[in-house]
Design goal:
Blueprint: H1 2-16, H2 25-28, E1 31-33, H3 37-57, E2 65-73, H4 75-83, H5 85-93, H6 105-110, E3 116-121, E4 124-129, E5 133-135, E6 147-154, E7 159-169, E8 172-175, H7 193-203, H8 207-219, H9 223-246, H10 261-268, H11 274-294, E9 298-300, H12 310-320, H13 326-346, H14 351-354, H15 360-374, H16 379-391, H17 409-428, H18 439-452, H19 465-471
Parallel strand pairs: 2-5
Antiparallel strand pairs: 1-9, 2-6, 3-4, 6-7, 7-8
Length: about 475
């Protein structure tokens, strides 16, 4: 027992020796094409980064470059076809960044697998094709599950230059030898929710004001620039819900999944009981964005593409069903960002790292926090609402059927949105001092569960519903 106690205390000591949150809002929340931040946005960013590097290094090459070669590993290999990973990498190598990717580009690239494209390095034409992207081993020794190696080859098939990239979730990428970029330091440093609450007490600031202070210090951007970016993200989410509600038909892929958001939205209009109408609308809003994501539409990573329907659903309901003002919505959005920061900093938000608890679970926690803060409740209530939402997603696996972000992903967004609303109700109905489970504990539990979770339940489509549905 003494040994176990010693190990426990050593674990707790190690968990406290971490740096403060230094992530920017501009990094966590990004616009880009679906269906997956780790499988689509991340690989596209890697392709674009590699193209820019090759152009810089062109004078160093002793042989004439001829073509690009890409190898996908881990869950990028296992479920990349259903996620459009090949098209995403190709789009990046063609010079497209996620935030400026034309609508429908990935779908068009995927529909023409034999097409050859040309990209210029200086005045040298480089050949690109989906046939030069290889699905390699699922089990590997790279430090991150979602790994891709991009090479610039000469005519003899020899590599002139290559880089090992890691898509670490939420559209973030790293590479072999990567070092965190130098930014400013937060003026109110925190590494946990407990830390954050202490900073709030010390400064007397509200949660959204503290986030704005830190964002200005980290990025050097003015408040006007930061708020303008937040407003743009909010409008992108609102428009995503509206587009999804207006569309019908079958989503791409082999699963024959029909869009349901519009049907639910029309159904809600016929319901006379208020709470049934509200919850049906909430489901429709979440599925609208999730269906747009599955169709490769432009969404916001909140915190990932696969979970991008949860927060917009609450946000849309806050504006149009609860009639909460734009300023309060924006302030609530900043509270959601704080929860996303903490989850990413102290655990993970990628399905390939911790399962769907890190995607839908974190999205639900962010949404619960957003609504609670926007409704004027204190940081204690906000943290408790986020905790309740996350706690009841713990252990959730990532098991996309056929590798598509459709089953069970779309309905999970709807359920995550409803759980967020219920977490808000539970949190505000009790004395916050009597709440027994802290948000920090829930995030730690998520990280531990993710580390112990078998790889077949982490976005590889090798277990769970992805297998049982096919077998039946």
């Amino acid at each position: 027992m003494a040994t176990l106690n010693t190990l426990f205390h050593e674990h707790k000591k190690r968990s406290l020796i971490v740096s403060p949150v230094e992530t920017s809002i501009f990094d966590l929340l990004k616009c880009g094409p679906g269906p997956s931040s780790s499988h689509t946005i991340g690989p596209m960013k890697a392709g674009y980064d590699f193209l820019c590097l090759c152009r810089e290094k062109l004078p160093e090459f002793t042989q004439k470059p001829d073509h690009f070669l890409v190898r996908l590993y881990g869950s990028l290999s296992a479920t990349g076809k259903g996620h459009g990973t090949c098209s995403a990498v190709l789009a990046g190598l063609l010079g497209h960044s996620p935030e400026k990717c034309p609508a429908g580009l990935l779908k068009n690239l995927g529909n023409n697998p034999d097409e050859h494209y040309t990209q210029l390095l200086g005045d040298i034409p480089i050949t690109l094709s989906l046939r030069n992207i290889i699905y390699d081993t699922v089990v590997h020794d790279f430090p991150y599950n979602n790994t891709l190696v991009i090479s610039l080859m000469d005519m003899k098939g020899e590599a002139l230059f290559e880089r090992e990239y890691y898509s670490v979730g939420g559209g973030f990428i790293q590479w072999k030898g990567w070092k965190a970029p130098e930014f400013g330091k937060p003026v109110h440093p925190y590494q946990s929710m407990k830390d954050l609450q202490n900073r709030l007490e010390e400064t007397g600031l509200t949660l959204h004001e503290l986030l704005l202070d830190n964002e200005t210090a980290i990025t050097g951007k003015s408040r006007v620039e930061i708020l303008q970016y937040l407003d743009e993200l909010i409008e992108t989410m609102i428009m995503g819900v509206k587009r999804g509600l207006s569309k019908e038909g079958v989503l791409p892929g082999t699963l024959n999944v029909h869009r349901k958001a519009g049907v639910l939205y029309e159904r809600a209009k016929t319901l006379n009981i208020f709470h049934e109408r509200f919850l049906t609308n909430l489901n429709a809003y979440a599925m609208a964005t999730a269906e747009e994501n599955a169709d490769g539409g432009v969404i916001v990573t909140t915190p990932t593409c696969g979970a991008s329907g949860v927060l917009p659903a609450l946000l849309y309901a806050m504006r149009y069903d609860m009639h909460i003002g734009d300023r309060a919505v924006r302030e609530g959005f900043l509270a959601a960002v704080a929860i996303g920061f903490l989850a990413k900093h102290n655990a993970a938000i990628a399905g390939a790292e911790v399962g769907c608890q890190g995607e839908i679970g974190v999205a639900s926690a962010m949404s619960a926090a957003m609504l609670t803060h926007a409704r004027g409740f204190s940081a204690e209530y906000t943290a408790n609402a986020a905790e309740v939402a996350l706690e009841h997603h713990l252990g959730l696996t990532c098991d996309p059927v056929g590798g598509y972000v459709q089953i069970p992903c779309i309905e999970r967004n709807a359920v995550g949105a409803v759980k967020a609303y219920n977490a808000f109700l539970l949190a505000i109905s009790e004395d916050p001092k009597s709440h027994r489970v802290s948000l920090d504990s829930a995030i730690e539990a998520m990280g531990e569960t993710g580390r112990e979770m078998n790889a077949k339940f982490k976005e590889t489509s090798l277990g769970g519903l992805a297998v049982s549905m096919v077998n039946c």
